[in-house]
Every structure is written in C-alpha cells, then in structure tokens.
Amino acid sequence: MIQQFADWLIYSLCGLDPATGIGTALNFFVYDSLKIIFLLFLISIIMGIVNAYFPIERLRNYLQSHRLFGLQYLFASLFGAITPFCSCSSIPLFIGFVKGGLPLGVTFAFLITSPLVNEVAVAMFLGAFGVKATAVYVISGIVLGTLGGMVLGCFHLDHLLSAWVRQIQAMSSHQAGEWEAEKVSFGHRLPSIIAEAWRIVRGVLVYVLIGIGIGAAMHGFVPEGFFESYLARDNWYAVPAAVVLAVPMYANAAGIVPVVQVFVAKGVPLGTAIAFMMAVVGLSLPEATLLKKVMTWRLIAIFFGTVAAFIILSGYIFNLII
C-alpha cells in the first residue's frame, strides 16, 4: 500500500516520469520515509514495553552483584541491543558502568553492541532488507559485542584506564540492587510508552529524512555499477576498505541504513554494506574523543582495532551466508 501511494503521488499526481532520475529518487524518498517511520514507531513501542518491565538499572545492579561464568558479557551485549543509543550517547552510561566497578570487558560488550543494534536500526533494516537479513544483522551484532568484550577482557586492560576513572573506582563502594515488584498496570503504562515512542521518532526524524534523502539521490542519479566496481564480492579488499572508509564518518543508524540500502541496490554485497554500516555507527572519531575521558589513547586504539577486526571478519562471513 505504501508503494502504491508513493507511485500515485509521484508518478500520477505530480506527473513525473519513472524513467527519470528525479522521479525515481522522489518515489524512493516517499516510500522509504513512510515505511521506516511506521516501523520505527511500532518497534519503539515494543521496546518501550520491554524497558518498562526490565529497566536498565536492574541489569546494571544485577551485573554488578553476580558472577555469571561468562554470561555477563552476553547480558551486557543484550542490554546494549535494547538501549536506543548511538556510539556517542552510549558513552555516559559506559562511564557509569566503569565508575561502578563493572569488569572492563563487560562494559566493552555493552559499548560495542549499543550503537550497532537498537530499535532504530532494527526497524530500518527490517524495512530495507527483510526478516532474514535483519535477523542475521541483530544476532551478529550481539555476538560481536559478546566476543569483543570477552577478548578485550582477556587482555586485562584496566591499567590503561584514565587516572580519573581509577581514582573514582578506588573510592567507590556499591551494593547489589534489589528487584522490586512492579505495581503499575500495563494500561496505565501504555500511554507513556506510546508518548516515549513518539519522542524517539521525533528525535531521529531529521536524521531519517536526511539519510533517506542521500539514499534517494544516490538511487536516482548514481550510475549502475559505480559502487560495485570498487566494493564487488570478488575484490578481496572490499570489506576492509569499506570499514576503513567508514571510520572517519559519523552517523547513527537512522542516517546510514538508507545509504546502505542504495549500496546494495547498486550491486555492493550485503555483507560488505553491513560491515560499512557497523563501522560508521560503531567506530567514529567523535566517539574516540569522548572516550578519552575514561581511556588512554593506547586503550582506545586497542578497542577500535579489535572491533574493526571483528567487523571485517563479520563482513566476510555475511557475504558467504547471505
């Protein structure tokens, strides 16, 4: 129905030719904007329900007070997946974890997954690539965070935290949080959940429209085969090149998924495109600047290098299985 509306609006009402670049670009823009906004609102409501009954303070307190035989990495990664943060906005919570005394590897598991997988990314990815590719993307993002956190935890890098953090840790004492029974009914929670979902949509709407606009321009005017010639499946360097090119960029999922969608439409393998997106949203120069408050440059370099290596490996695996 959305595609039919876009066709009617652009080709019938506006009278644009579908064979022209401007007609194709505007049709893409209208269709993707309506589809992604609807999916984003719906999934934000679902995740709001999840967060209402499993608030983030509970998981933080639980991870602080329990040894889970390695499962704490998975739980931290899952926690990162359900929090709607980009790489920069997830850092304050990461700092809180470090100050609270959580193992550094566990906090890295959260920091890796949080910008990669959230309701914005899932909604847009679902609309762009379907259920199978979305499932692969979500699972891989969680696995990436879990394994990355475990590997970084094995390096015992706490001595590379900044002096400010180590001073805070030395003075901190924390106690296990208690899980309190929820007494507010679902009916009373739902209006605030819907309002929060709409607030999330409004907060990223500009980025969504900018990203779709860029994608629409590429979709309508970039020649066929342009991207494929540089990032084709048979080019062994395509995945690492995509990751290296993505690091200087900074965008959240709302801005980059439409661009990735056009990459795939132009012939770039989906695995290479996903690796590019993960590097854009998960590794950025603004993130490195913010992390300098809690890490030395050496630790930041180790963190970025480890995550980049995992993203590159994931890109090659995606190209084999998708």
Mean pLDDT: 76
Low-pLDDT regions = 172-181
Q: Kindly state the number of beta strands.
A: 0
Q: Give the biggest sheet.
A: none
Helix and strand element order: HHHHHHHHHHHHHHH
Structural Rg: 21 Å
Total of DSSP H or I helical runs spanning 4+ residues = 15
Shape field: globular
Residues in helices, as a percent range: over 70%
Separation, N- and C-terminal Cα atoms = 28 Å
Q: Provide the β-strand percentage band.
A: under 5%
Secondary-structure class: mainly alpha
Q: What are its keywords?
A:
single chain; 322 residues; mainly alpha; 75% helix; 0% strand; globular
Helix/strand layout:
Blueprint: H1 2-13, H2 21-53, H3 56-65, H4 71-82, H5 91-99, H6 104-116, H7 119-154, H8 163-171, H9 186-221, H10 228-231, H11 238-246, H12 253-265, H13 270-282, H14 285-291, H15 297-321
Helix pairs in contact: 1-2, 2-7, 2-9, 4-6, 4-7, 5-6, 6-7, 6-13, 7-12, 7-15, 9-12, 11-13, 11-15, 12-13, 13-15
How would you concisely characterize the structure shown here?
This protein has 322 residues and is mainly alpha-helical. It is built from 15 helices and no strands.
Word description of this protein:
The chain is mainly alpha-helical. It has a domain of 216 residues. The protein has 15 helices and no strands.
